[in-house]
Amino acid sequence: MKKLIAGNWKMNGLAAAAAEIEALGAKLTEADRAKADVLVCPPATLVSVLEPKARAAGIALGGQDCHEKECGAHTGCISAEMLADAGATYVIVGHSERRADFGETDAAVKAKAEAAQRAGLMPIVCVGETRDEREAGRAEAVVRGQLEGSLPEGEFVVAYEPVWAIGTGLVPEEADIAAMHRLMREVAGPGVRLLYGGSVKPANAKAILGLDDVDGALVGGASLKAEDFYGIISAA
Ligand code: PEP
C-alpha cells in the first residue's frame, strides 16, 4: 500500500508558515511522491491560506478536528463541510488531545468521522492507550474498544498513537507497534491505511515505516519544519 505521511501542526503556525509548505514542495521528488502521499493538517485558519501553495506542491491539506453537524448554532466550531470548502481533503478525528482536553467519547469521534465522510473528507481516526493502561497490560483491549466504538462504515484511515509516546520522545518497542497494527488490521480490514504516530522523527522513521501493517505515520513536532518532515517522507 502507498504510504501516507501526515503532519499534525496542532495549534502552531501563522500565515508565514506557507514558506514551510513551499520548502517541502521544493524537496519532494517524483520518487518520493510515488512512494508516499503527503498530508499537512495545519490550524483551520490556515487551510485556505496554504491551499494554493499546497496544491502546487502536490501536498494534501487536512483539518485537525470537525464538528459532527454541517452548520448551526455551535459557536467556535468548524464543520467538515467548511474544511472541505477551504481546500481540505482529510480531517483528523479523536486525537488523544481532543479526547483528553474536550472529553470526546468514542461515539462522538465516530459521529465526527461520519461527518467527514458526508463532506467528502477522509477521516483519520486516532486511537491509543495511556501509559497506565499499557503498564496494566490493557493496551490491546483499550485500543480494540476504541476501534469498535469510533470507526465508521465506509472509508477511513486509522492512526495508532499511544498517548505516552506523543510529544515525549518515547516510542514503543517495534514488536509492540507491530502487534497493535496486527490487531488494527484484524478490526479495520484489508485496504485500510494504518498509521503509527508518537515521536516519529527522521532517525526512527525507516524502522517504524518498515514494520508490517504500518502504512504511514502521523507526525506532530517533526512536521513543523520542512527539513525534518522531509526526512520522514524520504524514509518511506
Ligand atoms: C501527534 O500529536 O499526533 C503526534 C504524533 O505528535 P509527536 O509526533 O510530536 O509525538
What features would you highlight for this structure?
236 residues; alpha/beta; TIM Barrel; eight-stranded parallel beta barrel; 16% strand; binds phosphoenolpyruvate
Task: Describe the overall structure.
The protein is α/β, with parallel strands linked by helices. The protein has a single domain (about 5-235), classed as Aldolase class I (TIM Barrel). Helix content is about 45%, strand content about 15%. The chain contains 11 helices and 8 strands. An 8-stranded parallel β-barrel has the order 1-2-3-4-5-6-7-8, surrounded by 7 helices. The protein is globular and about 45 Å long. The mean pLDDT is about 100. Phosphoenolpyruvate binds near residues 199 and 221.
Helix content: 40-55%
Structural class: alpha/beta
- Spell out the helices and strands N to C: EHHEHEHEHHEHHEHEHEH
**Total individual domains:** 1
Bound molecules: phosphoenolpyruvate
Radius of gyration: 16 Å
In what range is the share of β-strand residues?
Answer: 15-25%
Reading off the top of the CATH hierarchy, the class is best stated as Alpha Beta
| CATH homologous superfamily classification | Aldolase class I
Number of helices: 11
Question: Rough shape?
Answer: globular
Mean pLDDT: 98
Query: Tally of extended strands?
Result: 8
| Second CATH tier, the architecture | Alpha-Beta Barrel
Tell me about the biggest sheet? 8 strands, parallel, barrel
CATH topology: TIM Barrel
Strand arrangement, major sheet: 1-2-3-4-5-6-7-8
Question: Low-confidence stretches at least 5 residues in length (pLDDT < 50)?
Answer: none
Q: Give the N-terminus to C-terminus distance in angstroms.
A: 11 Å
